[in-house]
Amino acid sequence: MLLDGKAVAASIRSEIADATSEFIATRGVTPKLAAVLVGENPASQVYVRNKQRACDAAGIGSDLHRLTADCGESELLRLVTTLNHDPSVHGILVQLPLPDSIQSQRILQAIDPNKDVDAFHPENVGRLVQGKPRFVPCTPQGIQQLLIRQKIETSGRRVVVIGRSDIVGKPIACMLGNRGVGGDATVTLCHSRTINLNAIARQAEILIVAIGRPQFVGADMVKPGAVVIDVGIHRTDEGLVGDVDFDAVAPLASAITPVPGGVGPLTVAMLLQNTLRAAQLANSE
Ligand code: NAP
Predict the structure, then answer these.
(1) Which tens digit of pLDDT belongs to each residue from 72-128?
(2) pLDDT tens-digit profile of 26-56?
(3) 94 plus 143 within the same structural domain
(4) Is 279 inside any structural domain?
(5) Per the confidence metrics, is the pTM higher than 0.85?
(6) For the segment 135-174, what is each residue's pLDDT rounded down to a tens digit?
(7) Stretch among 34-38, 223-227, 281-285 having the lowest mean pLDDT
(8) Is 270 contained in some domain?
(9) For residue 207, is it within any domain?
(10) Ligand 1 proximal residues by C-beta, below 6 Å
(11) Which domain holds residue 174?
């Protein structure tokens, strides 16, 4: 089965559009995202444009704040502080990666945790680990929603996550191991120091790959019948490919995400979800 992230994302986006218009009608407030783009990274420009378009389609406001690559940490911190104090802004997104001269962690920690729609602030990371999230990071949330909505049971199942980044691998491993719907799995987290990676990956009933290496996972790493979630995105001469060798793995897998059209569209949908939630939290009685 092909796990059609684009279709699932479209239905989530339509639910968010309905919830947003109801929120605006009852509260008289339009949820708003402030996106911050530093420098001219072409991929980042595309991502930010897509996020703004998605906001627009859902009835969520969005502003783009652009700084030059040489702006320096203090100018960026000043902008974040201004946005923190602006009551018309509910969500703040600083597009990564930032230029090498800026310490990303310092910036992410400066964002008001109540406006932290990427959920990278330590307070929100801590809440997620404790199973009491305020915001759930977008890509892992998209993966979990895809599993839930495609009725792929996680409870009691053996999950292997390859990649331990702060934005994908670590949070999805944590979420799938937490109690509750879309969780309760037995999770193994693998990385570049893992010994016998192939053998461990082959034990997975659900294999989640976020390593940033094009077509790294082949048929020899996948148990027949496994569900395979490919988070990777790579531009090649033949177009976009993931971290999984799709042609080799698809015949073996019971379900697999394509690239493009798998996890990517869900990430954007979840950003909208988090922005609406931020506005709801700011305007709750
Ligand atoms: P990342 O920060 O690049 O980290 C890569 C992880 O993979 C690290 O934990 C690394 O291990 C591990 N790794 C690298 N080579 C390995 C190997 N040979 N065997 C086992 N583990 C290995 O990861 P990321 O930011 O999560 O990005 C991963 C991919 O997902 C990229 O292609 C990125 O573009 C894509 N992505 C897509 C979306 C989306 O919306 N679809 C969102 C975010 C990221 P160590 O920790 O030991 O170095």
Answers:
(1) 999 999 999 999 999 999 999 999 999 999 999 999 999 999 999 999 999 999 999
(2) 999 999 999 999 999 999 999 999 999 999 9
(3) no
(4) no
(5) yes
(6) 999 999 999 999 999 999 999 999 999 999 999 999 999 9
(7) 281-285
(8) no
(9) yes
(10) 139, 162-165, 167-169, 190-194, 197, 210-213, 231-234, 263-264, 267
(11) 138-264
Mutate to test the pocket of ligand 1, among 165, 166, 195, 213 (most ligand atoms within 8 A of CB): 165
Written in H, E and C, the secondary structure of 249-277 is: HCCCCCEECCCCCCHHHHHHHHHHHHHHH
Residue 227 inside a domain? The answer is yes
Pairing type for strands 91-94 and 234-236 reads: unpaired
Domain shared by 163 and 87, yes or no: no
Are residues 74 and 191 both part of a single domain?
A: no
161, 217: one domain: yes
Query: Which token pair is 112?
Result: 């008001």
Task: Give the count of domains, the chain.
Answer: 2
Q: In angstroms, rounded to a whole number, what is the distance separating the alpha carbons of residues 277 and 141?
A: 14
Q: What is the DSSP letter of 96?
A: S
CA 13 to CA 51: how far, in whole Å? 12
Residues 58 and 161 in one domain: no
Q: 3-state DSSP call for residue 48?
A: helix
CATH of the domain at 102: 3.40.50.10860
- Reading the block at residue 9, the tokens are 């994302």
Give me the sheet containing 61-67, strands edge to edge: 61-67, 32-38, 91-94
Chain centre to alpha carbon of residue 267: 4
180 and 108 in one domain? no
Same domain, 60 and 147: no
Instruction: Judge contact between 12 and 145, C-beta under 8 A.
Output: yes
Distance CA 266, CA 84 (A): 26
Atom of ligand 1 nearest to the CA of 268: 40
**Cis (ω within 30 of 0) for the bond into 258?**
no
